[in-house]
Amino acid sequence: MIRQPRSPRVNGAVRAMLLAAASVTLAACSDEPFDKESQIGPNPNLPEPNQYLVPPMNVAKAVGWGKDETPRAAQGLEVHALATGLEHPRSLLTLPNGDILVVEANGPGLEPTERPKDLVMGWVMSLAGGGGGGSANRITLLRDADGDGVPETRTAFLEHLFSPFGVVLIGQDLYVANTDAILRFPYKEGDTKITDPGTKLTELPGGPIDHHWTKAMTASPDGSKLYVGVGSNSNITENGLEAEKERAAVWEVDRATGAHRIFAGGIRNPTGLAFEPQSGKLWAVANERDELGPNLVPDYLTSVKDGAFYGWPYSYYGQHVDPRVQPQRPDLVASAIPPDYALSSHVAPLGLVFSTAQSLPEQYRGGAFVGEHGSWDRHEFNGYKVVYVPFSNGQPNGKAQDVVTGFLNDKEEARGRPVGVALDKSGALLIADDLGNTVWRVTPAKTVSNAAP
Amino acid sequence: MLRRNKMWRGKRRLGSADKTLTDFNPKSTARIGGHPIHPMLVPFPIACFVGTLLTDIAYWRTADIMWSNFSAWLLTAGLIMGGLAAVAGLIDVLGSRAVRSARPVWPHMIGNILVLALSLWNAFVHSRDAWTSVVPTGLILSAVVVLILLFTGWMGWALVYRHRVGVSQ
Questions:
Q1: Which alpha helices (H) appear in A1-40, and where do they start and end?
Q2: pLDDT of residue A132
Q3: What would the mean pLDDT of A327-352 be, rounded to a whole number?
Q4: How far is the C-alpha of A309 from the C-alpha of A384, rounded, in Å?
Q5: Are A244 and A237 in contact (CB under 8 A)?
Q6: Which of A44, A73, A190, A428 is the most exposed place for a label (fewest CB within 10 A)?
Q7: What is the pLDDT of residue A134?
Q8: Which of A128-137, A177-186, A390-399 is predicted with the least confidence, judged by mean pLDDT?
């Protein structure tokens, strides 16, 4: 009885606390207005970093493609499925005879649960689909000899790989970059299956952890060196600095001896590598760090300079220091150079090919096609498309243009997600779609005469 | 009885309502086999949140990620067990006017709700990556939580050892 007057005060305090908790939750439900275009090009607008209490997350629900549904091609182009029913296709290679190799793979699933966050993230990512299942660890061959866009032959070309991603043919040597090693296989023109167990050329950083598992690979124009993109073992060193040894780098591997050196460092996750044909220089697309806000840090396309350091983990875009890394390294930050061309934040570029063919319309010649897998850590989706970055004199020249869109439907559900890009023998653009389990083929629209080589 | 009335800043409480207080020990409603559940659970959040402060300090001094991982697990375990302890405690408060009449019950309850709210905030801070998951915000929150626990713990022990809440007759 004596205590009665106290209870309203207690209720008031509880209510105030609940309100405070609710407002914290609500504060994180939309991105502040931001011009995404300002982060496409050589000098991106970089807002102040913001470490949210609950970082923005929006994972597109995976629904797949309905019957007869396709992505949308830009004007003057059309898109058709070259192959469907694949198992998480990630990257593509066109062989000299026109056969197309489709690498079907997923991560090796070696990442341990280190803290409660990993459990929560695992659950959120499982909503996106495509991440949870095992890895097919296979390369499928597609042969469309008559070039009508319908392959007559489809074989399991190479099996029992270990989370492969990069694949390169030099002469009669086929190199496959598994997540933990580069293997060499003998290949003869016309082969539809390889049974040789392969020879290990060099080991690559795989497990333990293997946070960024893809090993993109390309060969130098003279065929003497292989270049391998080795992603970091964390978002931003949360697995410890020791786990990052020789990672977040582009490796140069000598084809004859298998010896390697770090060609360039500080690139968080170089997921696509290609030589720019006019300048003969190596270029990469890379995925930058997360959890500094919806508009940081822009992923990028850059030339990869021999011996250069691009900042990760200590800084981004030159000298923008990341406060999450300890101990800090002002000496390395001082040496960091900014990448050449920003692609906007969290678009997740995973594929890169330079447009060397003559069959696509004029506006798509000489530049770079980039497959943008799409965002998950911002509210407004970004990416989920294939863009074209025009080049002139070996340098990007102009804004990235949408080439293939519509991977998200009107309800913003994911029907597909583009990854690797390649050109087929006719010069058509191929896109591996690892959610839609399809390879898309983009050709000039029928009204334009279909140029055959 | 005189001693007990003196317990909370010595203020004497007289009148008919005190009859129940002085004649019988306040009963715990959430109990198993006559043993109150709340005091069985409270050691877990106390140990976990004190442990969080220690591992946070270790991470702050060493930058060894292992310590920040320990903190994140300790915080999560503390929140789960602390949440269960809060439920049992709340049942005891709602279930007995005599418990509500024991003065330390309110500072104990409000303080511990604050402990859980701050620790939830702290768990989100600890879910960031690397250095700023602990330094400085996480470390400060962990220290504030331990300071509040010193007070609320003292109040809780007063409820049992002085006011005999949940002690059998």
A1: 6-27
A2: 54
A3: 98
A4: 29
A5: yes
A6: A190
A7: 87
A8: A128-137
| CA-to-CA dists, residue A55 to A30, A44, B132, B152, angstroms | 11, 22, 14, 32
- pLDDT of residue A23 exceeding 50, the answer is no
- Residue that has been written with the tokens 């130098």 in this structure: A220
Of A1, A21, A236, the CB nearest to B129: A236
Q: What is the pLDDT of residue A54?
A: 87
Which tens digits make up the pLDDT trace of B2-32?
344 444 443 444 444 444 445 689 999 999 9
Could you report the per-residue pLDDT of B48-81, keeping only the tens digit for each? 999 999 999 999 999 999 999 999 999 999 999 9
How far is A324 from B151, CA to CA, in rounded Å? 33
- Strand, coil or helix: B144: helix
Look up the pTM and report it: 0.89
On the 0-12 / 13-18 / 19+ scale of CB atoms within 10 A, B168 is exposed
pLDDT at A394: 96
Poorest-pLDDT segment among A111-125, A255-269, A310-324: A111-125
What is the average per-residue pLDDT within A235-259? 97
Q: Which of residues 81-120 of B touch A (CB under 8 A)?
A: 100-101, 106, 109-110, 113-114, 117, 120
The domain spans of chain B are 36-161
Are B129 and A235 in contact (CB < 8 Å)?
A: yes
Cα gap A158→A265, rounded to integer Å: 32
Q: How far apart are CA B136 and CA A293, in angstroms?
A: 19
Structural domain boundaries in chain A: 55-444
Residue A304, amino acid: V
Task: Report, at the CATH architecture level, how domain A55-444 is classified.
Answer: 6 Propeller (2.120)
Q: Do B101 and A2 touch (CB under 8 A)?
A: yes
**DSSP per residue, A185-253:** EE--TT-----S--EEEEE---TTT-SS--EEEEE-TTSSEEEEEE--SSSSSTT-GGGGTT-SEEEEE
Contact indicator for A123, A114 with CB cutoff of 8 Å: no
Question: CA of B124, closest CA in chain A: separation in Å?
Answer: 6
Residue pair A396/A341 in contact by the 8 Å Cβ criterion: yes
- What are the residues facing A265 on neighbouring strands? A249, A309
